[in-house]
Amino acid sequence: MLITHPAVSDVAVFGVPNEEMGEEVKAVVQPHDIGKAGKELEAS
Question: Which end of the chain is more exposed for a tag (fewer CB within 10 A), N or C?
Fold first, then answer.
């Protein structure tokens, strides 16, 4: 659950077209502090 992460302010999850599977899930995450966004937050 992305929204429960302490560094996350908001999340949007939606389906997008995928040639092989028909559709796949993508998420857009809004961090509380954009200055801390990056690979480290992505990995946690």
Answer: N
